[in-house]
Structures are given as structure tokens and as C-alpha cells.
Amino acid sequence: MQKKTAYSFPDEILEHVFSFIHSGKDRNAASVVCKSWYEIERWCRRKIFVGNCYAVSPTMVIRRFPDIRSIELKGKPHFADFNLVPDGWGGYVLPWISEMAGAYPWLEEIRLKRMVVTDESLELVAKSFTNLQVLVLFSCEGFSTDGLAAIAASCKNLRELDLRDSEVDDLSGHWLNHFPDTYTSLVSLNISCLGSDDVSFSALERLVGRCPNLRRLLLNREVPLDKIANLLSRAPQLIEFGTGTYAAELRSDVYSNLAEAFCNCKELKCLSGFWDAVPAYLPVIYSVCSRLTSLNLSYAPIQNPDLTKLVSQCPSLQRMLVLDYIEDSGLEVLASSCKDLQELRVFPSDPFGEEPNVSLTEKGLVAVSSGCPKLQSVLYFCRQMSNAALVTIAQNCPNFTRFRLCLLDPKIADYRTLQPLDVGFGAIVEHCKDLRRLSLSGLLTDRVFEYIGMHAKKLEMLSVAFAGESDLALHHVLSGCESLRKLEIMNCPFGDKALLANAAKLETMRSLWMSSCSVSLGACKMLGQKMPRLNIEVMDEKGPPDSRAESDPVDKLYIYRSVAGPRFDMPPFVWTMDEDFASELS
Amino acid sequence: MENSVAYEKATELRLGLPGIDEPAVLSSVKNNKRSLHDEKSGENGKSAQNETAPPSKAQIVGWPPVQSYRKNNFQQAKKSESECGGIYVKVSMDGAPYLRKIDLKVYKGYPELLQVLENMFKFTIGDYSEREGYKGSDYEPTYEDKDGDWMLVGDVPWEMFIRSCKRLRIMKGSEARGLSCSGV
């Protein structure tokens, strides 16, 4: 084979070629071809994704990539969403902002997920990045509307401000007033998480009125229904809209204004919000329904038949989020009406109730799997399941990429045979060869993990709770799942053996979370000594681990690979098991 | 895949397993800063005959995996939310430099509420009558309801009031009098 030498390609040509490669993975691959490609690539990389903010340091990123325009950072582990990560754990963005302020003055996009963002950080962002166009704070916390005011006042080129699911300290709704009158570039605004009873509505109206490119507007719960029509009439070009509270006394003027406003939004494709929705006002959106591709009713306590009637009018739906009020009957209607459905999420209306309050069972999911050939992504909360149903679902939907089943009673068996649900989930991983994400629940033995290790070759993220009987289960997963990046486990009888036997595997993954399992302190220390490129963090609110025996199980364990070494911003209840820790106790 | 024998050999290091068969059932406390305590269940739960597993009385931390903003959001919508958090509303008084906030849930009725307001802002409210509103003082307690209308405190039953009150304002002077003599 003829060998083409690198010097026949001028750098500019390579750089031009690289400019067509956008995916981080592909760029990473290109960068390890040879030294010159590494060099050229790093100078022209503009976008970077850091899946774990502690895996690398800002200094290292800046050193390698001198001219980044877009950064995405993730902080806390996923189980933080369910209150399993105590306050103060970490995930602070300030060190990143501080260093990037000097290094990346032309930064355009900042996307953060599960990070602690303070007002100080936001003020620094506002001051340092005059060209900021996109700021996404997804499930973040630690800031107030003061920080937002700083952003509004300074970021003249801001197109997108998205605070989805963040916890914001609402000090005043007047932060919206800080957008100058000359500011007209807003394209996307998501303030749905704001709880303030003081979102300055007039400032919002004026802002919406002067931004002709506004395409996405997600309001917070406090915006009353009778203000919506006015707002929509100022932005008929919206593609995505989230209402506030969708409840009010039925008044014909409000009703007709709303209906007209929605009717005039000819490009509206996505609707959400609908807090406290009352059926009386649902028909105002009927004119939009035929065009809707995404509908989020997961905050709406509407029940059948109103709910089903609404759903039946949306034949173009691709994405549906709803409460279990839809019941099996409503899902059957969904299955027959919405042939383009790709994603379904059904949330529990009464997650802690002991008795079922709705008639939502496995039958609903089976119906959708059968009627919707494009179904790829499922999140389903229900109270009963059978292996037979899961097998049917798997056979109906071999294209699943995400399958998350949550049985409210976490160790419930197949309700028909009283067997574990091993076979059912086994069918899912066997038939769905492209499955990237899986969440298990129900009564499960080591068997299901054997199936997962055997078949789930593309699986990247696995969530496990109250499952398995022994370390063999964990071993199957760690040794069999070649693409595994994130593994999170709670309340399973997994201990040291599998972990130690598969220590090397952990370096190929982003992270492993284990809480309320049986991993001993001694094993953690051993891992810490053996694997210098892993951070082994032990969390225990009861006291320092060295006050207990080596064989005592640790409360929470978070292991992640890192080239930055152990972190130094840990709270008192987190300890890193590294060489220092182990040696100082021996 | 590896059979059990190979697996055993692969694990050179043998550390004694603590030998907990049953995963722990944890009791939950509302916020993140909680102390967990384990309860080892006495029996071996591996057999499949139990349909209902952990004792359902204790809420398990992290299960079901519903994000807190969803839980909070939905609890506020539930009609029968007596366990839910307080109903905090801002209270302003004409002429006072800053506002206060009170929890309407804490009070049992109008007399208590009015007493608290009087103490908080150091003034006296007159006597309430359905026909004439508050007589005998320059101040009138008013509130903004869910529809955005300003109403006189005391006209509707207490339960209805706390459900519809968004904020309170203690009006002073002629504006106040206008409200009590048949509203606009």
C-alpha cells in the first residue's frame, strides 16, 4: 500500500477538512492520528464537551484548546436529581469561569448541567464574555435573579437564555428590566423554573414585543392565564411555547382571546406548562393540535375524557409527556392517533400513594409499543408489570434507544407469574440492539444482569436499584457491557469482588455511583491505591471513614476517571481514597 | 462469558463481604441534609413470593426517582394538601418602607390574621361589618385575588380566602374608604 506522507498536505487544508467535523468524538479520534493532526486539530477546535467537570481541570483544557467558543460542562452525578447527593458536594463552575474569562474572551456559548452557579459566577460571565450568545443552566442552583440581572444588562448578543429545572433564588422579578430597550436579539427564553410571584410582567411583555426573532418562550407558573393572549399576540412567530398556570374561572372574553391568539401562532409546534390545567380552557389550543410535534402535559392534572380527547387531536405528535391520568385507555388512543410518536414519558400523579389512584398498567405501554412504530425513547412509571408484556414490547420496538421503567414498588415481581422480571428485561436488551440507556426496576435476580452483559453491547448508561443478589451481577455488567459509560446503583447487594476484579474497566467509563450497597471501606482504599487515574470518593455523613472498620460498607461511593487528580473543593463528608489517605492510616 | 469458576479466580483479592443480604430500607427526611439509618430486614427476600417488598410505610430516599421540582409542583396542585408547605404572601402597608411576608396557613381565621397585622405594622383596624367594611379606622386590609382583583379582607369564607389570596395590602385613607363602600 502506498504511504501518503503528511507533509504533502498543508496545514490549512487539514484545518479546512477538520472544519467539517463537528462531533467531539470524531475530533478526538482525528487528534490521535499523529502529532501534526493533534496540533492542527487543537488549534481549530471550537466546541468542547466536558461530561464531568472534575475529570479535567480548566487549565488543562485551556492549554490544549486555545480558542474555544462553546463549552458544555456537567457537574453532579445524575442521582443528585433524586436527592441522593447531599448539599455542598461540589460541581462549582466559578473556577472554570475565572480561568476562561482570561483565556476565551470570545466565548459564545456556555451550557451547564447540575452545577453550582453563583451570582458571582454570573457576574463574571457578564463581564468577561461580551459575545455571549447562549447561556443554558440546566438543573443548576446557587444563583439568584441578581445574577440574571447582570447577564441581562451586559450580554448584548444573547440569543438563548434557558434556566430549565434550575433552582433560582427569586429576589425580584425586575431582573427582566435589565435587558436594555435596545436589546432585541432574544430567540429562546426558558424561565419555567422561576417561582417568584413577581416576574415583572410588563417587562416581559415589552421584551417579547421587541424581539422579532423570539421562537421559544417558556413561562413560569406565576404567569396567569389571562395574560397569555396578550403575550402571544406579540409573538405570533413562536415555535415553542410554555404557558404558566393554566387555570382560571371560565370567562368568555378570556377564552376567545386565548383561542384567537393561539390560532394566530401559525408556526407553533411545541406546547408545555399547563400547570393546574382545567379542562374548560383546553379547547383553545385545538387549532394548534394538528401541528403539534411535542406536548408536555406532565404538570397538568387533567383526566380522561378531556385528556384523551386532546391527545386524539394531535396526529403529528413525536414527543409526549403526560401524567398517569392518561391511563391505559388514553394510551390506546395515543397509539392509534399518533403514528409518528418517538418519545413517551408517563409520570406518576401520586408517587407515594400506597394504592393505585389511576388505571395505568403495563397494558398502556404495550399498546403504544404496538401502535407506534417509531417509538424510541420511553420513561414509564407504573405499578405493575409482567415478563410477557416486556417481551411483547421488546419485539414490537427493536429500535429502542432509551428504555426506563420505574415500578413504584421497586421490588415488585411479575404480577401474573410472581416471577422476577429477568426474562422481560432480558428480552429488551436482546431485541433492542441499539439500546443506549436502560433503567431497571422490579424484582430482579443476577440473571437479568447476565442478559445485560451478554446483549447490551451499545449500552452507555445503566441505572439499577434494589436488584440482584450477588457480586456476579455487577461483574456481568462491568465485564460485558463494552460501551458502558455511566453506571449508577442504589440499594443493591453488590460488594467488593466485582469492583476489584473489574477495576480497569472503571477507567473506560465516565463514572460509577453506588449508594447503600455493600462495598467496604477497605476495597475503596485498595482501589484508590491501585488506580491513580480514578478518583474514589467516599461520602458519609455519619463521620470520617477511618473511624470505622475496614470491612464496614461505605454509605455512598462515587468513582470517576480523571486526569486532574483528586479535587480539593470537597465538603467535610466526602473523602478521596488516594495513596495519601491509605498510607496515613496504616 | 466467564463462568463462576473463572470469575472466582479472576478476583485475586478476597476481602470479606459484610454479608448483608437485604438491601437497606432507609427512612427519608425532607431535605438533603439528612441522617440515614439502615434497617436490616430479618428475612431473606430473594424468593419471589413477596409481591410487595420493602415496608411501604417508610419512604425510601431516592425512590421513586421523581425529580424534586416535579414532586413540589404537583403537591401544590393537589386539592387536599394539608401537609403541604405554607402559603406565604407579601404584606404591604401604604407608607411603610418595606414589605413583610406571612404564612396564611398558620392562622385559623380572620381575627387572628388581623391581630397579627395590627401587631406587625403597629396600627389598629376598625370593626368589620358586611355592609360597611371596616369602620373606625383609617386603614383597610385588602388583598389581591387570583384574578388580579383587589378585594376587601373578610368578605369570603376563610378557607376560600387563603386559597385565593396572592398578596395583602393595608390601604390607608380615602382609597381605602372607596373600597369598602361598594366596590367598582
TrEMBL record, chain A:
Pfam families reported for this sequence: DUF7885 (PF25372), F-box_5 (PF18511), Transp_inhibit (PF18791)
Primary subcellular site in the record, as a coarse category: nucleus
Places the protein is found: Nucleus
Start and end residues of each F-box domain: 9-50
One Gene Ontology MF term: auxin binding
GO cellular component, one term: SCF ubiquitin ligase complex
Record pathway: Protein modification; protein ubiquitination
SUPFAM superfamilies: F-box domain (SSF81383), RNI-like (SSF52047)
Source organism superkingdom: Eukaryota
Keywords, comma-separated and alphabetical: Auxin signaling pathway, Developmental protein, Nucleus, Ubl conjugation pathway
InterPro entries cross-referenced by the UniProt entry: COI1_F-box, F-box-like_dom_sf, F-box_dom, FBXL15_LRR, Leu-rich_rpt_Cys-con_subtyp, LRR_dom_sf, Transp_inhibit
GO biological process per UniProt: auxin-activated signaling pathway; pollen maturation; SCF-dependent proteasomal ubiquitin-dependent protein catabolic process
Record's protein name: F-box domain-containing protein
UniProtKB/TrEMBL annotation, chain B:
Annotated GO CC locations: nucleus
Keyword Secreted in record: no
Listed Pfam families: AUX_IAA (PF02309)
Keyword set, alphabetical order: Auxin signaling pathway, Nucleus, Repressor, Transcription, Transcription regulation
GO BP annotations listed: auxin-activated signaling pathway; regulation of DNA-templated transcription
Biased composition annotated in UniProt, kind: Polar residues: 44-53
Ranges of residues in domain PB1: 86-173
Intracellular or extracellular location(s): Nucleus
Keyword flag Nucleus: yes
Region (Disordered): 28-60
Function (record text): Aux/IAA proteins are short-lived transcriptional factors that function as repressors of early auxin response genes at low auxin concentrations.
Oligomer status and interactors: Homodimers and heterodimers.
Similarity comment: Belongs to the Aux/IAA family.
The protein, known as: Auxin-responsive protein
Organism encoding this protein: Gossypium hirsutum
